Amino acid sequence: MTRLTGKVALVTGGASGIGRAACERLAQEGARVLVTDINQPGGIATVESIGKSAIFQFLDVSQESDWVAAVEQAITSFGRLDIVVNCAGIGFSCHAEEIELTAWNQIVAVNLTGTMLGCKHGIRAIKQSDGGGSIINISSVGGLLGTSDLAAYCATKGGVTLLTKAVALDCAELDYGIRCNSIHPTYVDTEMLDPVAEMIGSREQMVSTMVRNVPLGRLATAQDIANSVLFLASDEAAMITGTSFLVDGGTTAGMPACHSAQ
Ligand SMILES: NC(=O)c1ccc[n+]([C@@H]2O[C@H](COP(=O)([O-])OP(=O)(O)OC[C@H]3O[C@@H](n4cnc5c(N)ncnc54)[C@H](O)[C@@H]3O)[C@@H](O)[C@H]2O)c1
After folding, report:
1. In a mutational test of the pocket of ligand 1, which residue from 10, 12, 16 has the highest number of ligand atoms less than 8 Å from its CB?
2. Cα separation, 206 vs 217, whole angstroms
3. Residues identified as active-site
4. Whose CA is nearest to atom 19 of ligand 1?
5. Whether the CB of 249 sits within 6 Å of ligand 1
6. Adjacent-strand bridge partners of 136
7. Is residue 70 within 8 Å of 117, Cβ to Cβ?
8. What percentage of the chain exceeds 90 in pLDDT?
9. What is the pLDDT of residues 108-160, one digit of tens each?
10. pLDDT digits (tens, 9 = 90+) for 164-205
11. How far apart, in whole angstroms, are the C-alpha atoms of residue 258 and residue 262?
12. Cα distance between residue 203 and residue 149, in whole Å
């Protein structure tokens, strides 16, 4: 349990789902964690589940002043910053012709602008800490493939995919010792899917519909994603930057067989 001893991580969206699991997993391996979110009670619950090595800081990822305050808090409380996990995200589904401009602007602000600000302020603070580091952006399989009813979501997650590669190359060229990678989960049964379950009628029906798209035959868990966050945060991934790391149970590996009797 010492893969991240001495390291300090800032995680956005840490009050729930994948973000909470990532905070817990990083802390289990010795990191001190700044748990951030707009959901204060949820963030505090994450801190309580971790104990003394975590603190909560309110951070709306779309607000640059919040980012300045959050990285300052990490440095003041823990003395350094090594790892940033840009996990906060929102989604909505509708036909492309029905996208409301306010909803579009909001999803771009949180998923894409929020991740850009996390990279910008993460790089600055990690540089100050003088030891290199790792930035991990949670994208989606929707950042690699289109989905007909998720145009806005896919646009933001596709943006995160290429933002990540450009940031990785920039940091490498400038010799900062900072790696930047994106993670692309398939469906994960978190609060983000609550509206989908409601629309479909039940959680069980939603899960059984989604599982049909996952060759490994189950949805991902938040822990599956947190394990890949841990790997990319650790020195075991020292040679990995600019990659799109799939945690999709084979979803994007290819197409179903149709050339023989099944
Ligand atoms: N659940 C899935 O099926 C799935 C699949 C692929 C990718 N993802 C991505 O994983 C990430 C985490 O999603 P999740 O499934 O854990 O969802 P979740 O809804 O459980 O957690 C998202 C968190 O982000 C926070 N948040 C929302 N807006 C914010 C803002 N402006 N500033 C700071 N925090 C904000 C929420 O309060 C919440 O705690 C998201 O980026 C999502 O797009 C999820």
Report:
1. 16
2. 14
3. 153
4. 192
5. no
6. 85, 181
7. no
8. 95
9. 999 999 999 999 999 999 999 988 999 999 999 999 999 999 999 999 999 99
10. 999 999 999 999 999 999 999 999 999 999 999 999 999 999
11. 8
12. 19
Q: For strand 83-86 and strand 133-138, is the pairing parallel, antiparallel, or unpaired?
A: parallel
pTM metric for this prediction: 0.98
Main-chain phi, psi angles of 150, to 5 degrees: -130, 40
Q: 188 and 247 in contact (C-beta within 8 Å)?
A: no
- Looking from the CA of residue 142, the nearest atom of ligand 1 is 6
Q: What angle do CA 207, 86, 156 make, to 5 degrees?
A: 70
Residue of the nearest CA to atom 17 in ligand 1?
Answer: 192
The domains of the chain, with CATH numbers, are: 8-185+220-246 (3.40.50.720), 192-217 (no CATH)
Residues 21-54 pLDDT 10s:
999 999 999 999 999 999 999 999 999 999 999 9
- Write out 53-118 in H/E/C secondary structure: CEEEEECCCCCHHHHHHHHHHHHHHHCCCCEEEECCCCCCCECHHHCCHHHHHHHHHHHHHHHHHH
